[in-house]
Amino acid sequence: MSILVDKNMRVAVQGITGKQGSFHTRLMLEEGTQIVAGVVPGKGGQDFEGIPIYDTILEAKIMHDIDACIGFVPPRFALQSISDAIDAGIGVIVNLADGVPVRDMMNVRLKLNGTSSWVIGPNTPGIITPRQCKLGFMPSRSYAPGIIGVMSKSGSLSYEVCHEITKAGLGQTTVVGIGGDRIPGTSFDKLIPLFEKDPETKGMVIVGEIGGVAEEKAASVIRETVTKPVVALIAGRSAPPGKAMGHAGAIITQGRGTFQSKVEAFRAAGVQVLHTPKDLVAALRKLL
Amino acid sequence: MNLYEYQAKSLFARHGIPTPRGSLISDEQKISEAHAALGSEAFGVLKAQVLTGGRGKAGGIRVVDSVEQARETFKSIKGMSIKGLKVEEVLIEEKLKIKSEYFVSFTIDPEAQLPALLISPKGGMDIEEVAKNFPEALGKYIIDPNRGLPSYAVVDLLKSLGFPKSMQHPLTAIVHKLYKAFNEYEATLIEINPLVVTEDDDLVAADGRLNLDDSALFRLPEMAAFNNEAKELALKEKGVDYVDLGDGEVGLICAGAGMTMLTMDLVLQLGSKPRCFMDASRAVITNDPEGIKAALELLFFDPAIAFICLNMFGGLTRMDQVAKSLLKALDSMKPLPDKPIIMRLQGTNVEEGHKILIEAGYDVYSELEEVMNCLKKMLEARS
Questions:
Q1: Widest Cα–Cα separation across chain B
Q2: pLDDT, tens digit, for every residue of B229-250?
Q3: Using an 8 Å Cβ cutoff, are A125 and A176 in contact?
Q4: What is the ipTM metric for this complex?
Q5: Residues of A numbered 157-196 whose beta carbons fall under 8 angstroms of chain B's beta carbons: which are they?
């Protein structure tokens, strides 16, 4: 099955004619993603390789009943493009931009209150249900349809982990990159119940890192409501406090967001924490 | 971008938050001027300006009583290295007659993902310690950005924490000024620890921290002009995210922040130390030869680095392109010091990438485990 995205999703690409947008649209189509519209202000009425372009996401939604959109826009315009999509009632909104201001994402989260939209990202490679729907730029060859639900802050580590999961013959139901920012559009604790409910997902993998309390919140949800096996990897054990390790959100401030805090929270929830992607998958196999 | 204490204090002063009298000393001449300005009774405290905590413990904050003593102390502090950071500038300030010390800060609360006021009558110590040992002395208020910070909420909090009644009004004023600065500069952290109550019952920000959201600097040109951590900024412009960890003999060059962190962790697990965080993914994706060369130069020409580990798993990034860029950079840097570089490439176009590097005479691996085993053997052979 999968969560959030599948082959039936009708997708719009914001920024479809740009360098990034055009390049990735072609690759996403190859994976089977149903891209039915593009959105580029000022280019409404034109088309991109047969895909109609609209001036606004609202028009695209009205004409094509869009379920999901993916934005290839510079970080300073992320708030605008995500807000437009929320206003248009798009169910799954993906934004990949690296460098979106924290206060802009704070505003996105406030705007999401009372809606049923999901925002994936920013600062992420995206979300993929292998061979059905790819919204992002992850390397397709590392993924295969299967039984493991994966949630990750890091893009590169999600490739590494999925590479191992695919090698082990397990495959993935859906892989969600929540991104490495301080305020992501969604987080582990919101996604876990979806994987728990999905009949095809038999186990879950969390790829976390230092900074924030996403892992601690995930551990709470797991302890209370999850029956399926969950394993985790947490990067950044060697990171010194007070310095952001690449990702804006990967920083220990005022003593919060430490490696120890996350390990303890997971242990208390019965989630094994492993230190290499290989060990992670080996532990997962034993639990399945 | 994190601001130095003296920079944070200059911005506090702009917002009407009292700071100690003082000046930045770039050379010894300025010391006599400072002595004249502060007067002999209040002269002085010398403070190393570095972007790390623990300055006091490292001997970077010292009280002096004379110009002579100040000159000696200045020379000693200026040459110091605190947690791997070199002290370039020293602040000299008046001595405060301290009656009590408070703590006040605004951050983006990680749990609520909203701005939060954090305040305590127990200033002058690490906030982590207060949180652990005196949790009842730490007050937090989560702010709805649309509503702002209501005065009654601040007063209520001060009352519940047992602040003296006489301090309520002046403290509330400072809290509001600090919140205004926090928003104006789009900070991720603004902190005064300690906020001193002097014997004259004046509130003075004896220390100041201000961390800015790098992603917002494009719309705050005045803040961008501070240009702190210039080396890191220059590399960032070339597409390389670099954090110098101070010491460590294994130099890293990876693609992706998470991958870089994991590689650092694995080096630590092997009993060695990573010298840096280095995510060169943007340079590699945009195929910027400047960036890759700058990154490799940093690692090859630093005598403290004995081994170099390159670990890249490309999604967007094509490994054949990476291999070509690497070779081009390495060729342009010859002659190279005799330093092992253990390379791992995986992902898009990996076979071509490997072929290119092998043909040029380099060893290259496909799996993370292989790189770490190779490094392990090298570390063992060396000892």
A1: 77
A2: 888 888 988 999 999 888 899 9
A3: no
A4: 0.93
A5: 157-160, 163, 180, 182-183
